[in-house]
Amino acid sequence: MSNAFRAPPPAHQESPPLSSPERLVHLLSRVADKDREAFAELYEASVAKLFGTVLRILKQQAWANDVIQEVYVTIWQKAGRFESERASAITWMVTIARNAAIDELRKAPTRPTESDSILENWVAETPSAYDQRHQDETSTQLTLCLDELEESRQQMVRLAYLEGWSRAELASHFDQPVNTVKTWLHRALKQLKGCLGS
């Protein structure tokens, strides 16, 4: 008899915890059938564990945020391949996360730590070096430099660095691949740095 037609547990019996092994297996089986509600539940139940795995490897939160989005895309696509006889659900997902992080690290072993944070660092460090008047002038200069960017790039920079949007969220919003978003942001920040330094 399938799970869908089993009688509900007695009223006094508690449901298994959201992240229990049995629950994760059940959710993965539903995700294999492209059940979006189950996918959302699976994400909530496992994201802390998987994000921690990725962050320990990449050491950078923004980078880990990008990779974890790709990890869940992989889980969505490959849920049907999960075999509970070979590994627990969480072990299977952690393996996907670890492999994704290692692959990303191999692709960019010397990834600069400041390339995605030029704007934040510049803004954060400037006030400590100058008085309030210069800080006001700096804010004005930053606004002028932002205005020199294409409108879409302005919006992307503001969403990424003022609103904290992930690269995956930006990719969805602008209907572009994640790698394209990364390239656009890198170019926009390079242009801003040149403008601010002139």
From TrEMBL:
Keywords: Sigma factor, Transcription, Transcription regulation. The keyword Metal-binding does not apply. Signal peptide: none annotated. Residues 42-108 form the RNA polymerase sigma-70 region domain. The keyword Heme does not apply. Residues 141-192 form the RNA polymerase sigma factor 70 region 4 type domain. Residues 1-20 are annotated as: Disordered. One of its GO terms (biological process) is DNA-templated transcription initiation. CDD domains: Sigma70_r4 (cd06171). One of its GO terms (molecular function) is sigma factor activity. NCBIfam families: sigma70-ECF. Belongs to the sigma-70 factor family. ECF subfamily. This is Sigma-70 family RNA polymerase sigma factor.
